Amino acid sequence: MNDLTVNRQTFDEVMVPVFSPAAFVPDRGEGSRVWDTQGRDYIDFTGGIAVTALGHSHPELLRVLREQGEKVWHVSNAYTNEPVLRLAKRLEALTFADRAFFANSGAEANEAALKLARRVAVERHGEDKYEIVSFTQSFHGRTFFTVSVGGQPKYAEGFGPQPAGIIHLPYNDIEAAKQAIGPKTCAVIVEPIQGEGGVIPADPAFLRALREACDTHGALLIFDEVQTGVGRTGHFYAYMDTGVTPDILTTAKSLGNGFPIGAMLTTKEVAAHFKVGVHGTTYGGNPLGAAIADKVVELVSAPALLEGVRERSAAIKAKLAELNERFGIFTEVRGKGLLIGAELTSAYEGRAKDFVNAAAKHGAMLLIAGPNVLRFAPSLIIPQADIDEGFARLAKAIEEVVGATNEAHAK
Ligand SMILES: *Cc1c(COP(=O)(O)O)cnc(C)c1O
């Protein structure tokens, strides 16, 4: 091995081709700016897909990473550790929950939640109560159980027989939910805002109806807050602004600001059905990840930070409205806090990716949420100056796509 020169092309030569990364290769980041390996800078509106809630290279997180890194990284779950106990206490003080299970990702947190719900139903009601209710277009991760529960069949098909006992209902359809949730239902799992599915907020009345139906039929209500959690909506968890409290909440993404960590939060009564040895993980709750997440939770839960999320949300929505006045490319701008989706008009059907590519060319990082929606999930502390600069770059990118489209039509 003598040539270790790598670039974007190397990806296609050495990686399992499940991703199609951008043409540029990020090299370092600071706050809401990222520099690629060529030294070009980008305004980061992606936050690593709703992960880097405090931006890149946050000085307090760097300090914790260094301090805990020099103490101990990993001890296994044969031992506990102080950082994970502090993190659990902090989350419990902030939420409805009084028990936590730590994992390494959102999918694993959901896997734990779904297994726990099945176990609770079997132990409390018997073998016939196993049905999991989920919603079309939902996303809950990429393990086999979570893609089967998720509402996008293309992620679950082609892998052989799927786990049984899962039904999918239309999102925000109260009548369908009332009819389908019954004595066989063991759990309902729902995103308070569907993230990957297109940034689609749940109606508060829909969430209340799910809560009621679950209570009537002894089913557990699971909120998947992997994307909406940890300050993203301007509330520490989205459920806090809905008037509905789940029995189980899953959280990951922003929880570690990029250090892989996920958690399942629940009540003491529900947690009691997971006994020693019933579920587990090697890395979950390791002291390094827990110490970082503890600092993230401390900083993000500050009321001033959450207020700042709501202000930045308004600023970005105003910018999007301006762009739309100029270019008329969006049918709707929706979402909450710093999880914002802008749906393209039919003239740009299926072309969200073209806007993302053009944005990259002009120095802005942007996400899609399905083929027709541009998604913004930046750092929760993105400075106004970066919002301004990012939107100036975005305007140039949009001008280019719109111009090329009009030219193509004129021909
Ligand atoms: C990203 C996401 C997941 C999966 O999280 P991973 O860390 O990628 O496993 C699950 N649920 C929702 C709502 C998500 O947005």
Automatic annotation (TrEMBL):
The keyword Kinase does not apply. It is an enzyme of class 2 (transferase). Pyridoxal 5'-phosphate binds at G106, A107, F139, D224, E225, V226, Q227, T282. It comes from the Bacteria. The keyword Transferase applies. The modification N6-(pyridoxal phosphate)lysine is found at K253. It catalyses: N(2)-acetyl-L-ornithine + 2-oxoglutarate = N-acetyl-L-glutamate 5-semialdehyde + L-glutamate. May also have succinyldiaminopimelate aminotransferase activity, thus carrying out the corresponding step in lysine biosynthesis. Homodimer. This is Acetylornithine aminotransferase. It comes from Trinickia violacea.
